[in-house]
Write a structure and sequence with these properties.
alpha/beta, six-stranded mixed beta sheet, three-stranded antiparallel beta sheet, single chain, Aminopeptidase
Length: 274
């Protein structure tokens, strides 16, 4: 064996010092090379999206009720009668509420689609539903004296009347997944409207009996034919105002704020997509 030189001793000591000062004693691989330790996780990692995740704004469809000219036709998909009409002050009132709801939701980060783009725009129920395609929630806005309610889509609700061919037709809502979301969203909206408007707002079925030429039944036509978009249909009024009788601006403001709070309670401002 050759004698150990001073240079060899210095080299061996240097190597030992380098190993001892490495960042982690567990960082050595089986081959003897140093392996890099994984970076520490942060407290936000479990609750926040990864840096590469995109947060897409939730789309909300807002449907201000009524039409500037009478519509009396049949839905080309389901055959149900599409009957709409102007209703005096309600047309202006609900459009003003819709614009306020839109502006507030956009301010919170939502993407908003107005299904009727101006008070004077004529648009059928089917056209409104087509514009709402892909929305997470759709909100119809109406007024009626003494009526403060929210109407959800429910399996089995229907409209019935004489079809385009002269025969009796019954169109029934059947989409269970959409109905479940509509029911959940409707209760969230009703709860927030009750809190902000200062009076009870119930979730219930509608009643179109005895309102000819409207078909009989218990669901608004627009909610009936929107089978893939969860629809939340709203009525608001005071004992002596609503519908064709205009409502005070302060009451419409409360209605708008209640709807905004309801949407925010029902659906998140954005959805994470990876």
């Amino acid at each position: 064996m050759r004698p150990v030189t001073r240079a060899a001793v210095v080299a061996a000591v240097s190597i030992l010092l380098l190993v001892a000062c490495s960042p982690s004693g567990e960082g050595a691989s089986p081959s003897g090379r140093g392996a890099t330790s994984p970076p520490p996780t942060t407290a936000m990692s479990s609750a926040s999206p990864a840096p590469s995740a995109a947060c897409a704004p939730t789309t909300v469809a807002i449907d201000p009720g009524h039409n500037p000219v009478p519509i009396d036709d049949f839905d080309p998909v389901t055959g149900v009668a599409e009957i709409d009409y102007p209703n005096g002050a309600e047309d202006r009132d609900v459009f003003a509420v819709a614009e306020q709801v839109r502006d507030m939701l956009v301010g919170f980060g939502y993407r908003v689609i107005l299904l009727k783009r101006a008070v004077g725009e004529s648009v059928t129920y089917r056209q409104r539903v087509q514009r709402a395609a892909g929305a997470t929630i759709a909100v119809s806005i109406h007024t009626s004296p003494g009526v403060n309610a929210v109407f959800a889509q429910r399996v089995g609700l229907y409209r019935e009347g004489t079809g385009a061919d002269g025969r009796q037709l019954r169109v029934t809502f059947t989409n269970r997944a959409t109905a479940a979301r509509s029911e959940r969203y409707a209760h969230a909206v009703a709860e927030q409207r009750t809190r902000i408007e200062g009076h009870p707002v119930a979730v219930r079925d509608n009643d179109f009996g005895g309102r000819a030429p409207l078909w009989s039944g218990n669901i608004p036509v627009i909610a009936l034919i929107a089978d893939t978009v969860p629809w939340v249909y709203n009525e608001f009024g005071t004992p002596d105002a609503g519908g064709s009788t205009g409502l005070p601006r302060a009451r419409l403001d409360a209605y708008a704020r209640g709807l905004v709070a309801g949407v925010r309670s029902a659906v998140p401002v954005c959805v994470t997509s990876r």
